[in-house]
Amino acid sequence: MTVVTSYEFSTHPDARLSDAEREHAIEVLRESAVEGRLSHDTFLQRMELALVVRGRDELEALTADLPPAEEGRLTRFVVRAVGKVSALHMRIRNAWRVERLPTLVLPVADSEPMPLPLRIGRDLSSGLRLSDSSASRVHAELRRDGETWTLRDLGSMNGTFVNGRRVMGAVVVRPGDQVTFGRMSYRLAAGQA
């Protein structure tokens, strides 16, 4: 049996990578991917390599072909500010659009009986027939249980959304909610007794 001691290997304590060096390399890779300089697959491959390489030269090789980050503090501030202004613009645009949506009136419980469930889609037999091609033939259904309304997606291709969130299964809806079937949106309103 051969006993190996540490004297037989050339160990360089300065060659060992710190976690901070690995994290810095991964951050450079992440920023490059966000800026579009690396594809998603290349980013994932290089990130995995950054976690297992042993030497600084190997780590530096992972980012050597990337241009140096030119962002300074001012640039990052401006990019964040533009992002926030853009988000505000989108919120204002969505708020303006919401007010102009057609209403979908929910019948009152005391009014004439509604066929349950109310089928929504392009099919001729649907209670709410949608004319847009983004809606499935049998897209969703609206059901009343006492005073509560439930909207269920029926496996539509383009989805059913309530207030911008995709419906998975069934969700309770109320007057004032925005419902979207494919590209068609409505504002729910309470019916008059």
Principal-axis shape: elongated
Radius of gyration: 29 Å
| Strand segment tally | 10
Helical proportion? 25-40%
Overall pLDDT metric: 81
Helix/strand structural class:
alpha+beta
Give an account of the 3D structure.
- The protein has helices at about 20-35, 40-50, 55-65, 75-100; strands spanning about 105, 120, 130, 140-145, 150-155, 160, 165, 170-175, 180, 185-190.
- The protein is α+β, with helices and mostly antiparallel strands and about 190 residues long.
- It folds into two domains: about 15-70, no CATH class; about 105-190, Tumour Suppressor Smad4, CATH 2.60.200.
- The protein is elongated.
- It starts with 18 loop residues before the first helix and ends with a strand.
- The model is unreliable at about 5-10 (pLDDT under 50).
